[in-house]
Design goal:
By secondary structure, the chain is mainly β. It contains 1 helix and 37 strands.
Length: 462
């Protein structure tokens, strides 16, 4: 009798979970796991240090993920899965104290970087990444005319063009990357107070600093760009960066000024740009925003990295936050500078002014945000980090609801710990295993659900 009741109840639970998984929810809170963190040499500056600027990512042909970060000496290249520093490619270091602004982008098997400095490898650095994991080859540097320094640039990978902010914030240069090692200037725009650019689908969005404006250009004809709009932000701060949504309907701006919000603009009608939503983290000073689908990822200085759902642009909702700078929560230029959420395997990179590179993973809590986001296959990922001490993260994917078992065993087959033993909906999950009480050695983990099994080895090293 009791067995029958348990069976009926379990079937009911699984059916309910299946219904939940099929519902589309507008918002999903996320948990954030820190997978690794390293520090690069920094310069003393008052009571703080400076050593980090922007970060970006590169996926090698073998699917290995690398984080790229601007550091005092140049561009650091780090294997994300192991936090191994492959190299630091020397860059210019003269001027720009104390922050050492560098910006990085990738195209095909190349990384490009610009800096607000002169000296070694000055101009837009071109780095060949094909020799990883052994090395990175510096190819050459490019600059247009006398424009050696640059604060920011963007690469439209679809059209193979770079848009490079000119020296002294005086406009941007349009550069063809048809030959990735030999860029060619093909056009330019002269404007004032340009701070950041973003180029995609022959459209360039421009953040215009102390002009308190942002603009859009049609650059289909690279030799004759056309201004689409210029919008003045009422009572605006320093318009720092701009990033459009995937469909180009909305543009999101940050104003690097205390208590000035991150703003969501409807730009679908250039003659009638309207403000539809605003957000600001607890420290009251946002740096850069990146858009990935319906999520904003904001490097928010002392508040760290914040994730904001804009499924409803009029009602942006913070879904996660990871404080990379726990020492404070004020509107100072300290803490999280850069963010890169666009990896293929779910890694997330942040860079701090103080010289820290942090690798994170954002995970939805509870039900997946929509049925269309269900995993394509039942799978158990390799734990990260591996080897580990004392804890490691285990990520697994379920294509259908069911009772799930995830257990860790030693090599003799003795169970060490039950990590999961419950009914779960279809979706992706992250669990943590702590081996603090174990001796060093090999272990294996086994995931089972609905008659399917998968096993992986992992290594614990004290």
């Amino acid at each position: 009798m009791f067995g029958t009741l348990i069976e009926v109840n379990m079937k009911t639970i699984i059916a309910l979970l299946g219904c939940l998984a099929s519902l589309s929810t507008a918002l999903s809170q996320q948990s954030v796991e820190m997978l690794g963190r390293i520090h690069f040499p920094s310069l003393a500056f008052g009571s703080d240090t400076t050593g980090g600027s922007d970060c970006w990512g590169y996926t090698a042909p073998d699917a290995t993920e690398y984080a790229l970060m601007g550091v005092n000496a140049g561009i650091a290249v780090v294997k994300a899965s192991t936090m191994e520093v492959i190299t630091v490619v020397p860059g210019p270091t003269t001027g720009d104290f104390p922050y050492k602004h560098r910006d990085i982008k990738t195209y095909r098997n190349y990384a490009y970087a610009v800096a607000e400095m002169t000296g070694t490898n000055q101009g837009m650095m071109i780095m060949d990444m094909r020799y990883l994991p052994d090395s990175v080859h510096y190819v050459r540097s490019f600059f247009a005319g006398t424009n050696i320094r640059s604060h920011n640039f963007s690469i439209d990978t679809a059209s193979a063009h770079a848009y490079i902010c000119r020296q002294n914030y005086s406009g941007f240069t349009i550069v063809s990357l048809a030959d990735p090692e030999n860029p060619v200037e093909v056009g330019s725009v002269t404007t004032t107070e340009i701070h950041d650019v973003f180029g995609r689908n022959d459209t360039v969005w421009v953040a215009e600093g102390n002009r308190h404006t942002f603009s859009m250009y049609d650059v289909a004809n690279k030799t004759s760009p056309v201004l689409i709009l210029r919008h003045t932000i009422p009572n605006g701060g320093y318009v720092h960066n701009i990033w459009p949504t995937d469909d180009g309907r909305y543009a999101i701006t940050t104003e690097e000024t205390a208590l000035k919000t991150v703003k969501i603009w409807d730009v679908s009608n250039p003659a009638n740009v309207t403000l539809v939503g605003e957000y600001l983290g607890p420290n009251g000073l946002a740096h850069n925003v990146h858009v990935k689908g319906n999520e904003l990822y904001i490097s928010h200085y002392e508040s760290g990295i914040t994730a904001v759902d804009i499924s409803n642009p009029a009602n942006p909702v913070e879904t996660a936050r990871f404080d990379t700078f726990p020492r404070g929560e004020s509107a100072n230029f300290r803490g999280c500078w850069g963010a890169f959420p666009f990896t293929d395997n779910g890694y997330f990179y942040t860079s701090d002014i103080e010289g820290y590179l942090t690798v994170l993973r954002f995970m939805p809590t509870g039900v997946s945000s929509s049925a269309s986001e269900k995993p394509e296959s039942f799978s158990l990922e390799q734990n990260y980090p591996n080897p580990f001490n004392p804890s490691t993260n285990i990520r697994f994917h379920l294509t259908e609801p069911g009772y799930v078992s995830l257990r860790v065993y030693d090599l003799l087959g003795r169970e060490i710990e039950t990590v999961v033993d419950e009914a779960l909906a279809a979706g992706t999950y992250l669990r943590t295993f702590n081996g603090d009480q174990l001796p060093s050695g090999l272990l294996f983990m086994r995931l089972e659900s609905n008659g399917k099994k998968q096993t992986r080895l992992m290594t614990f090293l004290k």
